[in-house]
Amino acid sequence: MRIGIDARFFGPKQKGLGRYVQKLIKNLKDSGEFEFVIFLRKENFNDFHPPSKNFKKVLADWRWYTFAEQIFMPYIIWREKIDLMHFPHFNVPLFCPTKFVVTIHDLVLKKFPTKKATTLNPLFYKIKKLGYKIVLSRAVKKSQKIITPSNFTKKEILKYFKIKPEKIVVIYEGVSKKIEEQKVAFFHDREKKRLKNLKILEKYGIVRPYILYVGNAYPHKNLEGFILAFAKTIDSKQSTVNNLRLVLVGEIDYFYKKLILTINKQLITNNLVVFTGFVSDEELPELYRNATLYVSPAFLEGFGLPALEAMSYGVPVAASNTGAQREILGEAALYFRPDDILDMAEKISLLLKDVNLREGLINKGFEQLKKYSWQNMAEETLRVYRSILTI
Fold it and tell me: What is the pTM for the complete model shown?
């Protein structure tokens, strides 16, 4: 049996989707029962190295959300004689020639259909929005199974689409660290380990102490509100942390550029808010490890992987109380209302001041992480493949 995986998002530069695809394929490598055909673009074709003979990579250099992928992806899927196709995002070709599984991470574009989230003019935005609606609806209805990373997203899909609940399979994502080893490493001489690679911080102009955020700057991520809350935190007379910085990690795209233009310039010129741009997987752990705390301020998250990654490095987390965050982070985070700047600032200040609260969340974080494993995610995904191919 030949299983195709649309890996055109493969790699960390494609943010959460890229990491999901990368980790899925990596952890499928021990399965010898299927032949996997991995579809990639030119930009990531050489990044993937087939781990065994049952993996084959194929060039599919068509950009996502385009007419080209709608026209040419069906042909290449047919040419490769695929028995089951896995699309890790909703952009499934309307005329997919085989059975398929789709992963739907969230319904952000349906719940937040704002013009702020596009670079297109109003006419093309309306056309894109209509196309999105058609493609998503068909993907939901025509797929054999839908994979989601949280029960929250499953409920959202059932709210908007009339399908049977058993069609949706919730499969949590994972974290890369061996949690017990990481926990021991953190509590053993933690300061020495934090100071290990400060040259990486210097490279990005980062000075401790700092609050960290990792991800994109799409409007639903609420970074404007987060920066306002940060400004209130450092202006507060109750703040006990001197020279506190905010570090935002993410490729400087249209949305980050727009954010930079809208915030108080003094925050940037005084090096209080640092935009690092893209940070590689090799360097990112040092930015996590040295952070005072991590904040996830989004209005909606379908899973929220960076917050879990922060926990794996012994960093206390504050997060919005919306979306899937309470489900995924459990009791291991301090929650705030994302639409209330004052509440966000107060919770951040509380976490900065209260050492016992931070230590408690760190311990709870290591326990919460035991629920998540990339290997388990891959094994559960394989079970979905088997359930379809054995029918």
Answer: 0.90
Residues in the chain: 391
Domains of the chain: total: 2
Q: What is the CATH number of the domain that holds 299?
A: 3.40.50.2000
48 with 196, same domain?
no
Please answer whether residues 90 and 133 qualify as being in contact, where contact means their C-beta atoms are separated by less than 8 angstroms. no
Residue 339 belongs to what domain range? 179-371
Task: Kindly list the averaged pLDDT for each block of 10 residues, start to end, along the chain of length 391.
Answer: 94 77 88 89 92 93 90 96 97 95 92 59 70 90 97 96 96 77 57 67 94 95 96 72 89 93 83 93 93 97 95 97 96 98 96 96 96 95 94 65
Angstrom distances, CA of residue 96 to CA of 25, 137, 143, 230, 276: 21, 14, 10, 47, 40
